[in-house]
Write a structure and sequence with these properties.
The chain is built from ten helices and no strands. By secondary structure, the protein is mainly alpha-helical.
């Protein structure tokens, strides 16, 4: 046989079989990453574990406040009357509701962060240090400091609320528009103070976490405030409005029911944190 007749560029059968088998193999799930961005699997684990941590704490808080957690009791209770979905009604002033104030918010956020950190530690061990730093950042900067600011401002406002409301202008008349306008005017100081306290709390929290990162972890790179940092603060807004005398409001009560969901976000951020390269 003439060796020149062999086409070396033509794919041989063993090569074709190898490539076919290679393409047919499913890639193994990847949990770690080195490009500074979490993989899809890590994000799924982070979301699941943070929601689980939040849910466990929520169940414990509901039980502590006298709500029944027996599966049979829950099954026979309308969904709208479950602790997490039950809202205030004007014609039922004594309606038992799940209270979510300073202590509950801190507990829920801690459960969320613990869940996200645990999930990350199990499935993404190579980035555990980054997750630990993010846990500290979230707890201090996005929970404790802002909640402290809003809670402090709310309590301070409550001492002078009557005096402040007394000097506010009010429209005369009995129409629905007039009543709504007067009610809105009375709510303006509380809204303004809450927003100012929240903004100050977020900015201060960012400075606190940058200080901690530099002194404890030797990281001089400043952590800028991100859009995701504002997501958990729906609870702070609700906290401020609730503490300022709107506990019986169906609207505020409805917003309060979403607090645990928003508080799962800090844990998610912790669970998907990655080392920067």
């Amino acid at each position: 046989m003439n060796i020149n007749s062999i086409d070396l560029n033509r794919p041989q059968r063993f090569t074709q079989d190898y490539e076919k088998n290679k393409l047919s193999q499913k890639p193994a799930p990847q949990f770690g990453n080195t490009n500074g961005e979490a993989t899809r699997n890590v994000k799924v684990v982070a979301a699941t574990s943070s929601l689980l941590g939040t849910s466990i704490v929520l169940a414990l808080l509901a039980k502590k406040q006298g709500f029944y957690l027996n599966p049979k009791t829950i099954k026979n209770t309308p969904i709208k009357d479950w602790a997490i979905f039950k809202i205030a009604k004007k014609n039922e002033p004594d309606r038992k509701l799940l209270e979510i104030e300073e202590g509950e918010i801190i507990s829920l956020a801690t459960g969320s962060i613990a869940g996200g950190l645990a999930g990350g530690a199990i499935f993404d061990k190579k980035n555990i240090k980054a997750k630990g730093r993010e846990a500290l950042t979230q707890l201090a900067g996005n929970v404790l400091v802002p909640v402290g600011f809003v809670s402090g401002a709310s309590k301070l406002y409550s001492k002078f609320e009557d005096s402040i409301v007394a000097v506010l202008p009010q429209l005369s008349g009995e129409g629905k528009v007039v009543k709504f306008t007067n009610k809105f005017i009375k709510a303006l100081p509380a809204m303004g103070i809450t927003l100012l306290a929240l903004g100050a709390g977020i900015c201060t929290g960012s400075k606190v976490t940058n200080f901690i990162n530099e002194k404890l972890f030797g990281q001089k790179q400043k952590r800028e405030i991100k859009t995701s940092d504002f997501a958990p603060h729906v609870d702070d807004l609700c906290l401020g409005i609730t503490l300022m005398g709107a506990k019986d409001s169906p609207v505020v009560s409805s917003i309060t029911r979403t607090v645990p969901l928003f508080l799962a976000i800090p844990g998610y951020q912790v669970g998907k944190a990655q080392e920067k390269v």
